[in-house]
């Protein structure tokens, strides 16, 4: 049996490119990570959506 590693949400948000997609890992409350796979078009849509609600100070 493999050793069990604790699932924690600790650590930074990260995005890596894998061939034709972007893989975004977001730490979540309660432990674990939300993993989202996006293509370039979806990443641009996400960027546009976030820019409308995020303030730059």
Protein traits:
single chain; 57 residues; alpha+beta; 1 helix; 3 strands; 21% helix
Topology record:
Elements: E1 14-18, E2 21-27, E3 33-38, H1 40-51
Antiparallel strand pairs: 1-2, 2-3
Structure, described:
The protein has 57 residues and is of the alpha+beta class. The protein has a domain at 14-51. 21% of the residues lie in helices and 32% in strands. It has a three-stranded antiparallel beta sheet. A hairpin with a 5-residue loop joins strand 2 (21-27) and strand 3 (33-38). The relative contact order is 0.17.
Radius of gyration: 15 Å
Largest sheet, spatial ordering of strands: 1-2-3
Mean pLDDT: 86
Helix content: 10-25%
Short description:
The mean pLDDT is 86.
